[in-house]
Write a structure and sequence with these properties.
202 residues; mainly alpha; Wheat Germ Agglutinin (Isolectin 2), domain 1; 45% helix; 4% strand; binds zinc ion
Length: 202
């Protein structure tokens, strides 16, 4: 399989920097990608890379101390360390969201403050009985309690993520907050070609 990085425009590789990306492999972890998901092997990998670019971008802008930014960083990190957020499964339609907010009087079911979020009580079921209105601080506290890495493996994963976030030049193409948005379509096409020609079915 061809290294996609050899096809990259030189300006993306200043000083000989060759970021990691192999067409047909997950941009985040190098596991095999599929036709259905040519750039990332999983929703978690997609969310991980997105979080890394988000935080790198906020560091570049010097905004990490702003309360809503540091809160967002904590949330994203907690979610990724906890295995990612099953965004597709938990997508709540606007209609369902309105119904739950109405049922709960747009009031946080935990503390009574005005509610802004819909929480899945357990798992990803979108049945009304598993949904409740929460305020943002309560939702965040819950998420953090669920995702706090306490074991050595979790702490190692956190350290690896922070190393990528703090790297002066991005370790991976998908960490590159400046160029990824203009790059990923091209890479996706390369990945699809590589996967198709390697004969992987899925
Ligand atoms: Zn992956
Ligand atoms: Zn609350």
């Amino acid at each position: 399989m061809q290294l996609a990085s050899t096809n990259l425009p030189r300006e993306l590789s200043p000083g000989g920097w060759l970021p990691t990306f192999e067409a047909g492999r997950c941009a985040n972890c190098d596991a095999a990608a599929t036709i259905a998901s040519p750039l990332y092997c999983s929703e978690l990998c997609l969310q991980t890379a997105k979080m890394i670019r988000y935080i790198r971008n906020k560091i570049a802008e010097g905004r990490t101390e702003e309360p809503d930014v540091s809160e967002a960083i904590e949330m994203k990190m907690a979610s990724v360390l906890g295995g990612g957020y099953p965004a597709k499964a938990r997508q709540v339609s606007a209609q369902l969201r309105r119904a739950i907010m109405e049922r709960d009087s747009t009031t946080c079911r935990l503390c009574g403050a005005p509610a802004t979020e819909i929480d899945h009580i357990a798992g990803s079921s979108n049945l009304p009985g598993n949904l409740r209105a929460l305020c943002k601080p309560c939702n965040m506290k819950l998420a953090q309690a669920k995702f706090e890495p306490t074991d050595a493996a979790g702490q190692q994963r956190a350290a690896d993520l922070w190393r990528r976030i703090d790297a002066e030049t991005p370790e991976r193409l998908c960490d590159d907050e400046k160029n990824w948005n203009s790059l990923w379509r091209k890479l996706k096409n390369q990945a699809l070609n590589a996967i198709t020609s390697s004969g992987v079915q899925t």
